[in-house]
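Onboarding guide, step 5: your first structure request.
Type a short instruction followed by the sequence, for example:

Predict the 3D structure of this protein.
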Amino acid sequence: MLTLFHYPMNAGSRFTRLLLSEYAVPFTLIEELPWVRRREFLQLNPAGSVPVLLAEADQPVAGTIPILEYLDETRGSMARENRLMPEDVFGRAEARRLTLWYLEKCENEVTRHMVRERVTRPLMPTDKGGGSPDAGALRAARNNIKQHLKYTNYLAGSRNWLAGDRLSIADLAAGATLSILDYLGELDWSGHDAARDWYARVKSRPSFRPLLQERVRGLPPSAHYADPDF
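The system replies with structure tokens like these:
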């Protein structure tokens, strides 16, 4: 069985869990607090970041994109019509582009700041950067949310799924990222009906259920977080 070192409020970790579940790959979870920098974990990934997948023969695969490529080559290629990577070369390019849009661009402009200020800072010791939230960082992140919701609404309104006709890695990346903001109650879907309907479809998939059942200690989710139909 594979082992995933993850942090529940990390978009890449959520994305990896969704990939594993969609491909019906059994795995165990080990929660890793990135700021602790455990010596044993650093031996698996010297960068100290999650996710890290301990694959066959205890071989570590570190980083969201390397894990994605590993799972596509070892599981996706045998999934046929359930493969999460589009069949044609341009479809794969678009799915990869959008995956990076959410896991890197949205993460760097919004999610990472929201999680740091609202989730991790209160838990971290002061010598590790803990303390009160930075109101300016939160304000900037909230302003950036609007553009990402607008773009998601455009994609969802012009395609069946974000990258094309079929569910792909792009939908899981977007769902993983936006679900963190959904947990924190930071998403205003008004005026973004297409994005809201798309998110409801993604949120209703069986692979999403474990995410919807988790809770951050001391920080309950928004009232509608666990409701696939809002």
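Each response can be followed by summary notes, for example: The radius of gyration is 17 Å.
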